[in-house]
Amino acid sequence: MANDFLLVSTSRPADETRTPALYQLTAEYIAIQQKLEEEGLDPQVIADTLEGLAFPLEQKAVACAHVFWNLDMQALAMGVAIERMQQRLQSVEKKSAAIHEYIRTNMIHAGIDKIETPEVKLQLKKLPASVEIFDEDMLPAIYFTLPEPPEPRPDKKQIADDLKAGTDVPGARLSREDFRLEIK
């Protein structure tokens, strides 16, 4: 029949041939490393053994990097699409504003205050007077407002420099160093 649909599952089958997750491979690698060290083996033997065991872990990390790149490219493509849509949105909004102004101007010139049909009601309404400042330098000081000063916030660079230099800074300490992953 023309209306029959083929249902395709997007989930993976639970087969035994799938490689373990990266965190599992890492845990196994660390456990073997600790066991070899506890057995008191020669450091070169441990290094050689771990080198051979690192391949699946490295392979999985590379596979994860490919997933990272794929997601990164998807995000980039989405960003480009969003930018394109924002440009289209601005274009449509400008056209809408231009048509609005076109109607308003022509109603004013024609001296028509109101147009009413079953579909739409157009009505000109008088706006209150607005202030036009033509020379700000001539305004007396009483007509200026001063912005609120920003809230004070900690100078983390200065605090870090002082802590690294050995100065005690109450309420602050250096946190542990971390690593940044670079994928090229």
Description:
The protein has a domain at 22-126. The protein contains three helices and two strands; from the N terminus they run ααββα. It has helices at 22-38, 43-110, 156-164; strands at 114-116, 121-123. The chain has a two-stranded antiparallel ribbon. Strand 1 and strand 2 (121-123) form a beta hairpin. The two termini are 51 Å apart. The model is unreliable at 1-10 (pLDDT under 50).
Fraction in beta strands? under 5%
Rg estimate, integer Å: 34 Å
Spatial ordering of strands, largest sheet: 1-2
Major beta-sheet overview: 2 strands, antiparallel
Number of helices: 3
Percentage of residues in helical conformation: 40-55%
- In whole angstroms, the N-to-C terminal distance is 51 Å
Q: How many DSSP E strands?
A: 2
Low-confidence stretches: 1-10
Summarize this, please?
Helices cover 51% and strands 3% of the residues. With 184 residues, the chain is mainly alpha-helical.
